[in-house]
Amino acid sequence: MAVAQPWKRPDLVAQPSLKKLNDELHDLRLDAGLPSARTIRDRIGQDAQGYWIVSHQAVLDAFQKPELPPWGRLEMIVPALTKAARRNDADSEFDRIKDLWKQAVKETITQASVRPPKDSTEPSSDDDARSVPKAFEDLWMQDIEGTNGKTAQVPRGGPDTPTSSDHTAAAQFNYAEESLKGLIINAAQALWNDKDALRVFLGVVRRSKGFANMANAIEEQRPANATFYGVKSREFEVEPSPARSELVRLRNVLDEHRLKWKWSFTNMEERTGVSADAWIHWYTHDDLPTREALVAFSHAAHLMPQDHILLLGLWDASHDALERQKRSDAMPSRISFDEAWAMRDQAASMLWALAGVGDDGLTVYGPDLACGTAPAFVVAGPASSGRSTALVNISRSLLEVGTRVVLAAPRPSPLRELADRDGVVACFAEGNIGHDELKEALSVASSEEPVVVVMDDAEILDKCDARRLLSDVLQHGFDKGMALVLGGNENELQSSLYWLHGVWRAHRGLLLSPQTRNAGDLIGLKTGDSIISSPVIPGRGWLHLGDGRLLAVTVPHAGPAR
Prior knowledge:
two-stranded antiparallel ribbon; Rossmann fold
C-alpha cells in the first residue's frame, strides 16, 4: 500500500509571490491528509461526457512545476482539498488562494515585461516573432491536454528535443509564454467591467490562427460560456438560458454534423454566410441561432430531409421556450382578486375557477371543473410560492357564484379563514379526514348543486381515512356533482402512492415557481428547464388547462391593488 508523502516543491526563490502561492497549496494538501494526485482528480470528478475535469498529471503540475498554474485548474483543486481539510470557512480559504494567485500573476507580468538580454543562442527578431504564435499555441494546448483529460499529455518534440540543461532555450520559451499570458490578462482586466466585450475578446482569442484546436476542444467538451483556461470558471459565467435543455439538444445535433465535417467557426462562416462572431455568440451566450442560419447550415452540411426537419423542430421547441419566458417576464407584478374577477367571462359555468391573470394583464384563466378528463385541478409549488393564495382565489371564485365548497387545511393556511363564509359546507383542519365526516359533507352534492373539495397541503392527507372516498370523487365526480382542487409541494405530490396519484389523470393544473424540470408531469404536460424558477417568485406560475398550452400567469392577491 502506497504511503502518503509530501511532493517535491519547485525552486521559486526568484518568484516570492509564486512561491507563497505554491507553499499554501502544499500546506493545504498536508491538512487534507496528503491525498494522491489521482485522489484529488477523483474528488473533482468528471464532466457530462465522462472525461476527467482535471487530470492527475495536471494536478501534479499545479504543485510541482516552477510556473504559474492556470486559475481554472486551481479553481477545481482548491475546493476539493479544502473540503477534505475540513477548514471552517471554505469560501474565505478559496478567496485567499485566489488573492495569492492574482499577486503571482502581477509578479509574472512584471518579470516578463523586462526582455532577457540577447546572447549568441537567441534567434533573430524575425524568427522570434514567428515563434510567438507557436509558443502561444503550446501554452494553451498544454492546458487543454492537462485539464479536460481528452488528450494524453505527451512530451512535445522528438528525440532531438533540448534537455533541461539548455537553460537559454527554456528561458526564451518561458518568456514568450509569460509575455503572451500578460497580454491576455491585461486585456481581460481592461474589459473586466464590460462582460459582453470580454466574451467577444475571449472568442477572438479562441478562434484566432493557432488556436482552432483549442477552441474546438473546449467547445466540444462543453459548448457553453467562454472561459479563460478551458474549464468552467465562475468569472466568465453567464446566466443560463431559460431554454437551456432545448438549446443543448439543438446544439448537440449541430455539433454532430459540424464535427463530421471537421468545421471550425471560421469554416462555418465560409459555408453558411453567417459570421463566425454570430456562431460564437450563440454558443457562449446560450442563445438561439436564427432560423435562417440553421437553414443555411443544413444546406451546407447536405443534411438528409429527416435531419433537416429534426433541426428545425428543435429550433421551434427552443423558440417556444424562450417566448414562454418572455411572456412570464411581461406579466403584471401585482393585481387584486377583485380586479381579476371583474375580467371573467360572465357566461362561465358554476364550476369555473379563477386561477391567474395572463401576460397581457387583461385576460383571466382558470379551469372549468365541470369538464375535462377528471374533475380535478392541481396547484403545486414550493413554500412561499403563493400556493395557498391561489387556493383561496379558487375558493372565492366558486363561492361568488353560489358553488358550495368543502375546505381541508391540515396545516395553518389562509384557506381556514374562509370557514365562516356562506357556502362552506365543512372545514377540516386536522391531519386526518374521517370517511364518515367527508361522506356527510358531500352528501348534499348533486349535478344541479355541485360541491368542490379544496385542499391545501394535500400530501399530508394522502393516507387519510377518507382516501377511498376521495379516490371515488376523482373517478365518478362528474356524475355526482363533485370536484376536487388540491395544492401541495411538487416533490411530495409526485411521490404520492395512494389516492393523490389519481389526480394526474386530470392533465391540468398550476405550477408556481417550479423547481424541477419534470414538474409538468403533475399537470399532464412535458416541461423542461425553461420553467424552473430560481429564486422562488411568489404568485408567478405556469397554467395548463388540458389543451396542450402552457400559459404564464400571475396569481391575484387578496387585498386591493397597490
